[in-house]
Amino acid sequence: MIALLLAQTIAITGGTVYPVSGPKLAAATVLIRDGRIVAVATNVPIPADATRIDAAGKWITPGLIDGAGQLGLVEINAVPGTRDASVQGDTIAAAFNVAEGINPASTLIPVTRIEGITTALAVPTGNLVSGQAVLIDLDGATIDQMLVKSPAGIVADLSESAKDDAGGSRAAVADRLRRVFRDALEYERRKTDFSRAQMQPLAASARDLEALLPLLHGRVPLIAYANRRSDIATALRLAKEFNVQLILAGAAEGWEIAAEIAAARVPVLVEPLNNIPSYDALGIRYENAAVLAKAGVKVALLEPDTHKSRNLRQQAGNAVSYGMTWDQALRAVTLSPAEIFGVADRYGSLEPGKVANVVVWSGDPFEFTTGVEHVLIRGKEIPLKSRQTELFERYKKLPPSY
Amino acid sequence: MRPLLSLLLAVTGACASAGGSARSSQAPAPAAPAATAAATTPERESAARPQYPSTYARHPNPPVLIRNATIMTATGHEIPNGSILLKDGRIVAVGAKVEAPADAVVVDGTGKYVTPGLIDDHSHLGVYAAPGTDAESDGNEATNPVTAEVWAEHSFWPQDPQIPLAIAGGITTIQALPGSANLIGGRSAILKLIPARTVQEMKFPGAHYGLKMACGENPKRVYGRKGGPATRMGNMAGYRAAFILAEGYRRRWDAWNKDHKGDPPERNLRLESLAEVLRGNMYVQNHCYRADEMAQMLDLAHEFGFKIRSFHHAVESYKIADLLAKEGTSVSVWADWWGFKEEAMDGIQQNAALNQQAGGRPLIHSDDPGGIQRLNQEAAKAMYAGQRSGIPITRDQALRWITVNPAWTIGLDSVVGTLEPGKMADVVVWSSDPFSVYSKAIQVYNDGWLVYDRNDPAHQPRTDFELGQVPAPGSDR
């Protein structure tokens, strides 16, 4: 409501608009009213009451979406009191939704959004089933104001790091997940027996099994972290067995089975700048995103390090260096993640009716020369300030004045 | 050509690696306190014998002329449509027009950019090698807060598969450092980044060892419950106690070295390293985040009469950029890392630029096997962040952040770090402007040796580790 009351009409004029949903438009206008985009075209009548942003010579794109990280869920990695992304004591933490752990006042949010990232997935970590990820806009005084979609997916870990939670073998990880999924369906069929204590012990708590039902009925996707080719294949197999809507994440060796992933119509969340071999992914390489995209896989690009979320555009630029087309890369940080997280009706492109998350750049958003000139989130212009800009202002001339 | 060649010979005389064809005979950096004793005493004592010498030898190569490229010299200017000639491991000529010897390999640099080989003065390649299991965790001798006696080269694994990745990013020299668990973590290794069977073959001839020291959170976290230090004041007391012992050790050895009368003092490897710092032969490379702690460390250095060569990480160096410039201590920083721990909370993107503005000597380091592959990109981010904030950083200054400034920090700025006649032929050819996100190193020459060529699998070195388990670039498996 507050957003609506403060809403206004904004016309971003004269720039080159990259709507993502269609070809770029030179000298075009993006007209925004009440937090939504109402027009994107070259001949848009501009209402008299509109606030104008002159974007001549600038590039205009949708706000970037980072489908990874823990924005709002971590302030300082080394300070446990500021971390809220992981729950202990429950290896199947399907009912753990991170939303209420989000701190809208986190200093990371302004640091990130003033560099053109307007939306991010807040991802639970740890355990075999980590919990429920939520999609947030990087503006809002309350969690409710920030939430875009909750849950956006339930996160499971099929990478090497999950083995210990399943007894020490990859095979046990898959077996455990199968038992959990079967028990969730069994629990659903026999809730009465369960309440009368007439069921064998279940593979997870009733509330975690209950939380998995939307996933098992195809209403919430499974976000499965897997890196080794065989683990990716396991995730595909599990998804097929249980008819689960799957999103692969990490997928370091995904390029090796790109055709299978494409055939299964499973989208992939990839960090482009990741090529350090480990026993979990000896085949890891920079070309992963490009090979997957070329095979027809829907790819979203990630910057998984929360404090570096602003480097999503550097990730995208490097994805181009290693084989993606520029258009593919832009889509992979805007419309593709919106589609993957099921919010493409509202997010990811510059089209009438969509939420007005818009960035005005001085040039190519992936280039280092480029600065952010304007950021709008839900139609509201965001001041380009953060704790870091305040520190700079204080110390740009020495000695500082306190 | 002739005048340039004579200049080359004059310049090389300044570096320890001057000389004929092979340089296998080069001495390591002066290491032991007995370095002077070695010449005059019989080699009965260990201190008088060779101390882990470099066996580096230049790979033989034909001369190479790269022509019609933008030459970024790191000496203050760029040469459009310029040429550079490499011969016998040296840069022979740089200019608008350079003639090639008949036997030169000619590289068409049209549209390409040429820079000095990049130098990372803060790497853990080889000591924290991939694939990253406990078996390769050799960077922190976290058994005592002061382990000046350990040498990173004795942990370094030349088959670390991260090495060819860094080479492909245009890196030609690294300082491989011990980790930061300890107050004094040990000696660094200054290495040519080349394929090699042994670390001795990689040791940069004539380099100054660094001594890794660490401030702040890490030592007190690691030792807080293992006997201390548990506080920052405990950290300071720990450094001071160590250097007080080193003063006496240095005095005893220096006195004995004068006349060699009587038995030599007993060797102590820990104090030997610290005494070398007191003598100015070994450079202090100090992991330190907070501005107030850096100021404390400068006082420590004044107390014991040594210089801190560089503050590493130094996320708050912009707060005392004037002080650091006055001290002549370089700052080895990231472009934009921050927030992973409390002492990193105040990191800002203008850090390098503000230090430059204050007249200091900033440089961009990686501390990371990913970041070392794109130091050019990190320098670009830091340069443009400065420019956008009104700090007029030049392209040449930003290039110096990843070439001659780190070379200075490891004492090799007269040998590498710029494209000038006489310098070692460490040269990178880039596909486009290296400050663009789309630019890639396409050729890397290390001492004239084409160690990497993006377009030629014959020049894409692979480690033993990769064979049969890491698919080769461009291949399936």
Helix coverage percent of chain A:
25-40%
The CATH topology of the largest domain in chain A, please? TIM Barrel
Give the CA-CA distance, first to last residue of chain B. Answer: 50 Å
What best-fitting shape of chain A do the alpha-carbon axes yield?
Answer: globular
The total count of strands of chain B amounts to: 17
Number of helices of chain B: 12
Which structural category fits the helices and strands of chain A? alpha/beta
Radius of gyration of chain B: 22 Å
Features:
heterodimer; A: 402 residues; alpha/beta; Urease, subunit C, domain 1; TIM Barrel; eight-stranded mixed beta sheet; 27% helix; B: 477 residues; six-stranded mixed beta sheet; 25% helix; 19% strand; disordered N terminus
Descriptive report:
The complex is a heterodimer of chains A (402) and B (477). Chain A has 402 residues and is of the alpha/beta class. Chain A is built from 13 helices and 16 strands. Chain A has helices at 2-6, 108-113, 143-146, 170-189, 191-195, 206-216, 229-241, 258-263, 288-294, 312-321, 326-332, 335-340, 387-395; strands at residues 9-17, 25-33, 36-41, 51-54, 59-62, 64-66, 117-122, 129-137, 147-157, 222-226, 246-250, 268-270, 299-301, 358-361, 372-377, 380-381. In chain A, strands 1, 2, 3, 4, 5, 14, 15 and 16 form an 8-stranded mixed beta sheet that branches. Chain A has an 8-stranded mixed beta sheet with strand order 6-7-8-9-10-11-12-13. In chain A, a hairpin with a 7-residue loop joins strand 1 (9-17) and strand 2. In chain A, helix 4 (170-189) crosses helix 6 and helix 4 (170-189) packs parallel to helix 7. The longest helix of chain A has 20 residues, at 170-189. Chain A is globular, with a radius of gyration of 22 Å. With 477 residues, chain B is α/β, with parallel strands linked by helices. Chain B has one domain (2-466): Metal-dependent hydrolases (TIM Barrel), CATH 3.20.20. Chain B is built from 12 helices and 17 strands. In chain B, strands 1, 2, 3, 4, 5, 15, 16 and 17 form an 8-stranded mixed beta sheet that branches. A 6-stranded mixed beta sheet of chain B has the order 8-10-11-12-13-14. A 3-stranded mixed beta sheet of chain B has the order 6-7-9. In chain B, strand 2 and strand 3 (90-95) form a beta hairpin. In chain B, helix 5 (232-259) packs across helix 6 (269-278) and helix 9 packs across helix 10. The longest helix of chain B is centred in the middle third of the chain and has 28 residues, at 232-259. Chain B is globular, with a radius of gyration of 22 Å.
